[in-house]
Specification:
By secondary structure, this protein is an alpha+beta fold. The chain is about 30% helix and about 25% strand. About 35% of the residues are buried.
Length: about 230
């Protein structure tokens, strides 16, 4: 195994997702203070988060980001996405389902539902975002609380294509795969492993404990995979 390549992959993962986490923590503090001060309208929320979010989204490796409100957290909207998406940083607001035109009930999505239940950081995906991009994405979300209740989640999207460009050369050199906490493939050096496929031989310590892990087959190609790195480190 090339230790330098393995370490380089770990550093790239840390730099990308660590920067996202830092931004989500900033939004959490900012939005939490806004809601703690009293009732909040959608316009007030946008005014609070737009400038900082758009500055963060100048990073071309990011697909989108912002803040998604919990049901009835705003005084003038039940559901609302203060979220900017795509190359043009288009604003979502009252997002709708393309096929029906109905308002999107995002509370069913894992990136909202799981942090709402656990109260902790969550990295969802890889999944196909049929609402916004029609491509595989990873969504990191952090719940935001004010007055003892969750008022929404701060979040950001990364496309799997971006992660492929960032990590695939190094993963190929060491024959490794990036998996999520459920052992699902995010990016792999193995052309036979598709994004989203479950790797059953992923070590237990790479499942659940960390949102992301870099794993490698054993020397003989049999048995449990070896964990080379993970995020957070």
């Amino acid at each position: 195994m090339n230790i330098d390549v393995s370490a380089d992959c770990a550093v790239r993962i840390e730099q990308h997702f660590g920067a996202i986490l830092t931004e989500l923590e900033r939004v959490r503090a900012q939005v939490g203070a806004l809601f703690a001060a009293g009732p909040v309208t959608s316009d007030e929320l946008i005014a609070q988060v737009e400038t900082g979010t758009l500055a963060f989204l100048q990073d071309p490796s990011l697909l989108g980001g912002g803040f998604v409100v919990a049901p009835a957290a705003l005084v003038d909207r039940r559901l609302y996405l203060a979220w900017w998406q795509g190359a043009g940083r288009d604003f979502l607001g009252d997002a709708v389902v393309p096929a029906t035109g109905e308002v999107l009930d995002y509370t069913r999505q894992p990136w909202f539902r799981i942090p709402a239940r656990t109260g902790a950081l969550h990295l969802a995906g890889p999944y196909v975002d049929f609402v916004c991009t029609d491509e595989y994405v990873m969504t990191m979300t952090l719940p935001v609380y004010a007055g003892g209740r969750m008022v929404g989640v701060a979040g950001a999207d990364t496309s799997v294509e971006t992660l492929e460009r960032m990590l695939l050369p190094g993963l190929r050199e060491i024959g490794a795969t990036l998996v999520n906490s459920h052992g699902r493939v995010v990016v792999s050096a193995d052309p036979h492993l598709a994004t989203g496929e479950v790797m059953n031989a992923v070590p237990d310590k790479a499942r659940g404990a960390r949102p992301l892990s870099v794993v490698q087959p054993s020397a003989d190609g049999r048995g449990e995979l070896k964990t080379l790195a993970g995020w957070p480190s």
